[in-house]
Backbone:
């Protein structure tokens, strides 16, 4: 059984973690991991430009806000698998062509 004090601390930590996630917090990563996200963002931007799309147009096609596209291209956001699939589909590209 978990002590009430421990349970309360766990609740507070979870609440803080949720707030960080909702605010767009990305946990620190190793430089190698960060480089992968930066490279993926650049590939996404290159493919988007080659398709003649603005960030807003890609966001509309994929069902995401322009700011989401901006954050992904700048590696300020790490999209979940479904988001990566939606964006790749909107670009007419394979997921693997952009990410890894």
Residues:
């Amino acid at each position: 059984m978990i002590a009430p004090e421990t349970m309360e601390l766990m609740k507070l930590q979870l609440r803080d973690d949720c707030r960080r996630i909702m605010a767009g917090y990305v946990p620190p990563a190793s430089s190698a991991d960060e480089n992968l996200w930066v490279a993926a963002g650049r590939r996404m931007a290159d493919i988007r430009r080659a398709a003649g799309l603005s960030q807003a147009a890609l966001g509309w096609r994929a069902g995401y806000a322009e700011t989401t596209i901006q954050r992904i291209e700048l590696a300020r956001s790490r999209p979940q698998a479904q988001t990566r699939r939606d964006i790749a589909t909107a670009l007419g590209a394979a997921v693997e062509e952009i990410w890894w």
About this structure: The chain has a mean pLDDT of 84. The chain has one domain: 29-98. Residues 57 and 66 are 8 Å apart (CA to CA). The chain is about 70% helix and 0% strand.
